[in-house]
Amino acid sequence: MDRPEIGLAAEKLLDYVENDTTFMADKVMSVPTWSYVDADQWGAEMELIFKRVPLMLALTCEMPNPGDYKAMEAAGSPVLINRDKTGVVRAFLNVCSHRAAPLAADGHGNCARFTCIYHGWTYAQDGKLLAIADRAKFGDVDKHGLGLCELPCEEKNGMIFVCLTPNAPLDVDAYYGGLLKDYADVGFKDWTFMGSRVIEGANWKIAFDGYLEGYHFASLHPETIFPRTPSNVMHYEGFGPNMRIGFPQRSIVKLRDIPREEWGQHENDGFDFVRIFFPNVSIFLAPEIAQIAQLFPGPTPDKNRTVLMYARKEPIRDEEDRAAVETMMNFLRDVTYNEDYVVGLSIQKGLESGAHDDLVFGRNERGNQYFHEWLNWYLQDDPTMPRPVM
Ligand code: FES
Asked: Which ligand 1 atom is at minimum distance from the Cα of 100?
């Protein structure tokens, strides 16, 4: 498979390693510390970003079969995603039109119709209200106006994207600007879901900042990431507000022994990528196991809830293989929590202490700068303003 853009990124990474440099922004950038702790700022982020942009809420491999569903909370909204008997995926607010109880408890399941847990109204997979329990006694209502509230939803290249605002426009191809092609290239829709883990931490931006640079690998991950990946060497590419971040492995110099036209086929063999879906998803896509981190704000500005989902190219082979995968998922969760999220909790306290008015992102931390530039762009709520460029 020809992947020239991956080969180009590999060339950049090798150049950075050989010349002891990295991708550099034009200047350093300051971000006010209050923006990580202020309740109004946090509310604006929910309304102007999380409620408006496409969110990658589920993987195709989590719910591959007709009737499969996933119920979850996303940025404060209860969401129900389901695949109907023809394979079409839809998303709804997980809220009954009678008296607002959920149709399904959070988690995964499979059913031909949804029955409300409270009084037993039933809904079809397309959200239409099928039956009102004991209708003769309930009274006269128009069933057609009492379906579930549908959310814009699109499935693409192995992922399911949802906008949390009903009737909002959703154009996944335009929003991701070509980044989703990578997932088609690796056949991500046919990978197998391995499971998930949940961790909690500080303000969602404190946690997310940690996914956007490798400047901290030597200090914070000396025994886990640093042995594979040198510190402070990153290559950034922007796709609208989204990013592909390249990291060299220590073995990248072996590319010199491989024909240049083959470098594009060496992802995870000499170099790696973390792919960032603005505002809240980070994906490390390795065939032996991919970690897909979904960061959800709240319930207050000083907290986030992160769902770490895992998928693999090969299905589970046997019980021994399953046990090994469980061990690997626990290990990855523990590294993420113990090495990144614990320091995030301390950072939260530091920000709240008032010690400094601003944080500073260096020229090497271009991914963080880009993220905050896009965050500010959305918070202006003025589409005529110039968009950030990498
Ligand atoms: Fe759902 Fe009453 S709240 S049936």
From this structure: 3
User: How far lies 111's CA from each of 68, 121, 125, 196, in Å?
Assistant: 7, 15, 9, 22
Q: Which atom number of ligand 1 is nearest to the Cα of residue 99?
A: 3
Task: Give the 3-state DSSP-derived string for 322-361, with helices as H, strands as E and coil as C.
Answer: HHHHHHHHHHHHHHHHHHHHHHHHHHHHHHHCCCCCEEEE
**What distance in angstroms lies between residue 86's CA and the mean position of ligand 1's atoms?**
27
Contact 126, 84 (CB under 8 A): yes
320-356 pLDDT per residue, tens? 999 999 999 999 999 999 999 999 999 999 999 999 9
Name which residue sits closest to atom 3 of ligand 1, judged by CA: 99
Phi, psi of 289 (to 5 degrees): -170, 130
Kindly report the pTM of this predicted structure. 0.97
pLDDT number for residue 78: 98
What letter does residue 87 receive in the DSSP assignment?
S
Q: What's the Cα-to-Cα distance from 58 to each of 176, 233, 299, 367, rounded to whole Å? A: 16, 31, 21, 24
Going along the chain from its start, the domains and CATH numbers come out as: 4-53+173-380 (3.90.380.10), 68-167 (2.102.10.10)
DSSP H or E stretch at residue 151: strand 150-151
**Two tokens, residue 139:** 């009274």
